[in-house]
Design a protein that fits this description.
Strand content: 15-25%
Number of strands: 6
Order of helices and strands: EEEEEHHEHHH
Radius of gyration: 23 Å
Distance between the termini: 34 Å
Strand order of the largest sheet: 1-2-3
Largest sheet: 3 strands, antiparallel
Structural class: alpha+beta
Helix content: 25-40%
């Protein structure tokens, strides 16, 4: 994942690092390298007081995406719920697990672009938008549950929207 994708979701940046040997509070960075496939930075540090060298790792800390339910409750975004719902809607369809994973990633990315808090309606709408491109039958199945269809006319209306 690109490092720049997470810049808006970072929390803490360490400026001073205390030496683990003498507790001097201002060590110097002598080398920095990307680590763990670019999701962390490994820094080699040296204490100017005792000359001890040590390594630190900095990792990105993502801000939790919160979903506001119709009831007003707030819960953390759970991409596994999207995968489960889309998998159920895609059952028996020529849709691969990898495509569903990509869809879940796109949904999360689109939602994060709007801020750190989204409504459950926004989540459902974004899933439908992504499903529209992936598989029309899965789209209709998902829409029938998400929009609570109870008549054949609901399917006809949604099919007309899908054709637009």
């Amino acid at each position: 994942m690109p490092f720049s994708r997470f810049l808006g979701h970072m929390a803490t940046i360490v400026t001073n690092m205390r030496c683990p040997i003498c507790s001097h509070d201002d060590t110097k960075v002598v080398d920095s390298r990307a680590a763990e496939d670019g999701t962390a930075i490994r820094r080699r540090r040296q204490c100017p007081e005792c000359s001890y060298r040590f390594s630190t790792r900095e990792r990105l800390e993502e801000v939790v995406l919160m979903v506001v339910k119709r009831s007003g409750d707030r819960t953390p975004f759970n991409r596994l719920k999207i995968i489960a719902g889309v998998s159920a809607a895609s059952k028996g369809r020529p849709v691969e697990e990898e495509q569903i994973e990509v869809l879940a990633d796109r949904v999360e990315e689109a939602l994060r672009a709007t801020g750190n808090e989204v409504t459950s309606a926004q989540v459902g709408h974004e899933v439908l938008e992504q499903l529209r491109e992936l598989d029309e039958v899965a789209y209709l199945r998902f829409a029938s549950v998400y929009k609570n269809f109870d008549q054949a006319a609901d399917f006809r209306r949604e099919l007309a929207l899908l054709k637009k």
